[in-house]
Design goal:
The chain has 138 residues and is of the alpha+beta class. Helix content is 46%, strand content 12%.
Length: 138
């Protein structure tokens, strides 16, 4: 990941509005709801391959203008809501850019195969002995 929180903040635009929820009478006066908008296509932080990957994985997060939209209205403070929104954006982008390790196919070792077959053979002999013992008792 070659992007930082500070680098992202230079390319982010914010919209603020009044939010519902806690805050009492203050809710009607202060614009504490934050809507963060980030353009992946216009960003200088990501390569073309990374942009394609982000666009593919975060399709549902784009608004009609093609911007990633993160809304936060949990806190009473606009500053705290901005901080939370940026953290969510960072989390979204890091998850989108994460590529899991490719699984390497491996074989079961000869020793493990032999141990499994020996265990099967012993179990078979044990059950065979039980069968012989019950026939003699009749």
């Amino acid at each position: 990941m070659n992007f930082t929180k500070a680098g992202l903040q230079k390319e982010i635009t914010y919209k603020t509005s009044r939010s519902g929820g806690k805050g009492g009478q203050n809710v009607n006066k202060v614009s504490s709801k934050v809507e963060l908008l980030f353009s992946v296509d216009n960003s200088a932080l990501f390569s073309d391959g990374e942009k394609e990957l982000i666009n593919l994985k975060l399709q549902s997060r784009f608004n009609k203008d093609g911007l990633i939209q993160v809304i936060c209205d949990e806190e009473r403070s606009q500053y705290l809501n901005k901080e939370k929104a940026v953290e969510r954006l960072v989390l979204l982008l890091t998850r989108a850019l994460h590529q899991p390790k490719i699984r390497k196919a491996t074989k079961v070792s000869k020793a493990a195969k032999m141990a499994r077959l020996d265990k099967k053979r012993l179990n078979s002999v044990k059950k065979e002995n039980r069968r012989k013992g019950s026939e003699d008792g009749d």
